[in-house]
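Minutes, methods subgroup
Present: GH (chair), OT, SY

1. OT presented the first of two proteins processed in the latest run. Sequence and structure tokens recorded below as shown on screen.
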Amino acid sequence: QPYDQEWFHRANAQAGCKIEFLHISDRLDADTAVLAAGAFAVCIFVNDDCSTAVVETLHSLGVKMIALRCAGFNNVDLKRAQELGITVARVPAYSPDAVAEHAVSLLLTCVRHIPQTWLRCRAGDFSLEGKLSFELQGKRVGVVGTGLIGSIAARILRLGFQCEVVAYDIRENPAVAAPPPEGLGVKYVSLDEIWSTCDAISLHSPLLPTTHHMLNQAAIDKMKRGVVIVNTARGGLIDSKALLNGLKLGIVGSAGLDVYEDESTSFFADLSYEVNDDDVMSRLISFPNVIFSPHQAFFTN
């Protein structure tokens, strides 16, 4: 994308490097991998496909490195890359404040009905009917995944909005669990307790085989009626069909989504003149209580 090119060339000049870039607008997959012929490295993003077949093609072309300009690496076959001697690098932490702030923005947008209000005001409807919301202060918010981004989101919600924040992670983060001033004094609880007791849930976990569809129909069935769900991590954490069903049943009150499990064919492209053939995504977008943003939480200067 043009914004990628701008920052690549700027960083290249600032570092005094003489790296030659070949900018390819197509997404990396089994069909486009051949375009990397002659390159020392490929630099990919969240929706590129670097599965087994692609890694093997890159190796056959002489590619020595796969550099991800993102934190997640679920789209790369790491085992095959290692077997073939290809180095894989990622950005372990980038824009953590930006992503955390975007998560809270989505939460507020859902709770206060901002898009609906804006559209109705533009149409001359200044009534309050249907705009009743609730305050975040004192509400129980579950933060699932307390790495750098999740811990910042927990801090904003705990200190900024005085929410009762509870957390879940396979490893406790001392910056979250420790009592103030060393930490936030946030209590770690089971995932089941997150699902069943929280007024809002914000997902910040990596996408792994163990976290794929962690928020599924069984989880939604345990939730409080009207729960707000926010996801700025990875789309595959949520079973989209289960979310759709939860919205239809009124269990899920609203959802703020910066990611979607099948986003690779739509996000980062202008499809405004095309028919969206993803039935689940189309249904979700059509709901007035679902807010989509196109994986832009990280996108700050």
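2. SY then presented the second protein from the same run.
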Amino acid sequence: AAVAAAAAGKAGLPAQMGSKLRTMRALMGWHRVTCRRPCTCWVWCLRCCKCRAAATTDRQAVGEGEWALWEPSKGPQVGRIMQRVMMMMMERPLLPVPTKVKQQQQQQQLKETLAAGQPPLAPDATPTHQRLHNELVQKGFSAFRFVRVPADYYEQPLEYRQAKLGAASVSHLCKSIFMENTRIHPSAIDPDDPLSPANWANPVNSRYYVILVQYAARLNADKLKKLVHQMNGSAFGKQFFNFRLAPEFVSNALSGYTHNAVTPIGMKASSVPMIMSHLITELQPEFFFLGAGETDLKVGLPASEFVAKFSPLVADITY
């Protein structure tokens, strides 16, 4: 609050801007980090992992204005840089503040979705939408919901995405990624063909794994490495395990989908083993959202039914 008030005063902004600045800071999740400059002061980060999508869009366009200096010994230092940042941010629309009424409406929408059961297929559904819808029906899901999102969906912060999907929280937004064991023992794979089914024939020592994690969490490659090493009974030494994000052409070929559209539903290589973060299964309510084969299409599912129908290995794989 003190920083916001001082910033508004020294930058020549109206007094009521202090409240707006505080609201903006709360929505964007600003926090103090060590400055990258030689002065080693503190800065309010506008491009951290929590708020990078909501902050200014182009660092080169804003220049040094993305950093608001904060020296603990001298108090807030607000000059032309800070003034420029604030003026630019004031021109950008703020996200709506979540309210209890809005949260209650989202919870009621989830209850109605679960009570309604399987939804009818939309008349304007694309072929991919139709295929995924039919697969969920065939697998016997009691409830699911497809949602079309705006084209700038991935340019927005998690709170915006949550509102568009009607999810219970940002923790209910999840993603599917392909991870590759780059040091797997040659005897366990087809070294000549990275897309050969032999590469994922053994689920406890596969070259590739489909990983389901929350956007709000971070995958721990070391935990994944330890998990797979234990699964194969230590038949191979730890030096033969090192997980990295699989190349995009591998992800596209095995899933049948492109970046930001990958989903375990209806994959081309449906036998690739799947590992799901245990945090997803602990969500309340359990209705979570995944990609659905198209960049602007998402699907919501009950976590317990997903585990029952797709049989992923549920494990602690995040920080």
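Chair's summary of item 2: The radius of gyration is 23 Å.
Next meeting: continue with the remaining queue.
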